Amino acid sequence: MLLEKLSNARGVSGNEGEVREILLGAIKDHVDEYRVDALGNLIAHKRATGARPERRRATRPPFKVMLAAHMDEVGLMIVHHESNGHLCFAKVGGIDDRVLLSKVVLIGKDSIPGVIGVKPIHLLKPEERKQVIDAESLFIDIGAKSKEDAERAVRLGDYATFATEFAPMGAGLVKGKALDDRAGCAALVEILKRAYPFDVYGVFTAQEEVGGRGARVAAYAIEPQCAFALEGTICDDTPKNKDLSPVTRLGAGPAITFADNSLLSDRRLVNLLVETAKENRIPYQFRQLTTGGSDAGRVAITKEGVPAVSVAVPARYIHSPVSVLNKQDFENLVALMTKTLPKLAKGLPPF
Amino acid sequence: MATAKKTAHFPIFDKDAPPSPRAQPAKELAKKLTEAYGPSGHEQAVRELLREEIKGAVDELRVDALGNLIARKKGAGPTPRKKIMLAAHMDEIGVIVTHVDEKGFLRFAPIGGVRPLTLTGQRCRFANGVIGVFGIEKKDASNTEIKMERLFIDVGATSASDTPVGVGDAASFWRDYVDLGDRIVAKALDDRIGCVVLVETLKQLKKSPHDVFFVFTVQEEVGLRGAGTSAFGVQPDLALAVDVTDTGDTPESNTLAVALGKGPAIKVKDSGMLAHPAVKNLLVQAAEDAKIPYQREVIVGITTDAAAMQTTREGVLTGVVSIPTRYMHTPSEMADFADAQNAVKLLTTLLSKPIKLD
Description:
The complex is a heterodimer of chains A (351) and B (358). Chain A is α+β, with helices and mostly antiparallel strands. Helices cover 23% and strands 25% of the residues of chain A. Chain A folds into two domains: 237 residues, Zn peptidases (Aminopeptidase, 3-Layer(aba) Sandwich); 88 residues, CATH 2.40.30.40. The radius of gyration of chain A is 21 Å and the shape is globular. Chain B has eight helices and 17 strands. In chain B, strands 1, 2, 3, 10, 11, 12, 13, 14, 15, 16 and 17 form an eleven-stranded mixed beta sheet that branches. At the A-B interface, loops of A face β4, β5 and α5 of B.
């Protein structure tokens, strides 16, 4: 299963090579051309097929749709070898310090195993048990005897990822690391297997978690007329004692973003997705939150602007060592996109 | 600042002088525009009003991919003419529904810089005309602690199923425009007053040696998004934002040498940009030459479309003409209409003559 391979692959922002190789293998027979750009984005191009829009004029630029899913995941970077052989690290992307304690990580290209060490409960004073330990005071123990020993195994700047194995659980759910956004990557691969009456650029982007950097330069090169970001997004559907937003609910369908910190979604695209979902009885929901951001936000303000929207598979516990999604939501994201895209053959209606 | 002394020579507003023949129609436009619905990303109604207002007076008119309204008025001078871009944003701050609870109360998130303190007891209006009231949870907190997550909107529904608006629907403040004589009060003077200044400049500018682009931008309040993309398209040689700025002239306000009625403010610096000294000087010179009162503005904590235009492509010479406005980002913003009229005078003076940019 592609999602499993992608989830287990290691690819913190700026180091997406392993993920890119898997994706390259998965798409190369389904697209007309592909390239890897200067920042490491994998850009796949699928030319328009079938009945072209009749009224297209030669003077008009061809209608190009960009679909983006980011390859990178949040993780750690080694920044110092301590004299006792412990490794200090920095976070890459948004990680809550509290989820780091006593996790197993894999470091560098040789996947050196390490443990983020924590004092056992026996040694903690009562007040220490209530404290949050910040990432700066944590270390990774790789079993090195000395600084020199640690330096031989791990270099400064090496990346560390959580050592989580993908596995099915419950009724149709899966658990794994980096489902944000390997779920979007796997969905994009499925979407690229279909034919569309306009040019589609499937972009597996680099460095989303540190600021949508890959998407920005990819959109600059492609100049799309509209764009979709396919994401793994926040889900907070555990019961609460107050009637507040769950952000998304697992199993309730792909989540459409209407606004986040980076983007006010183009309402024509939001409406198109909603109409399509209703017509085809595909469950959908809104992402009931306006914080966070995605590649769509960076694409939207590229050059003269690009109408954009973000659609996501809900995933519990994202940006931690393990997240959980419902396979049905994943299937429904693919279904929603493959039903929606052909409707863009006539372009977007004017404002 | 030093300019206060200088401006004292000029009649700031003469109560006995006959009103400018343009004042009344311009005020009517201000009323129409400020009362229109247009939170960021939902600028359609404002754009249509503006399109109607200017369509007969420009050479080209287009709406770009993000919804910016871009009007071009061709210059009369020899080619190549300089391209000058004026930008005023159409959008206003607002709120967006994130959750409808079982009883039909709406939880919301801000669009742009909305302070919870300004909300309780206020009303908002959705695109479909539905009016809501901002209420606050009473339990478990003092009445002075107003946090956004304790607020909700009540549209008079009794359950989630009879709520006339839903998740993802946006609302703006709902307030009438009030004419106090010299001063006007309205929601969304930020930046519909800038839009009025652009429309008036467009209509009063009879002959310019430059190609002037009047750009009504989208999504300023959420990150200057329309200005960056429209400037990329226009590729101006000189860009000016026309936007509101805060004042330091109310009781116990922050130290800020900007006041209502002392003329448009020529921006030197804000949190997002340093105006190009040459552009700032051009504006100061134009004001001095035409004996238009003006103030110099140095402010922290805010910025305008100019910040995005300045860093577009290879960089653009950029400045700002600000309309001093009290109570910014509340449902009742106040400006002095004479400042807006003087901004129009300043811009028409500047644009009527050749400009040397180096």
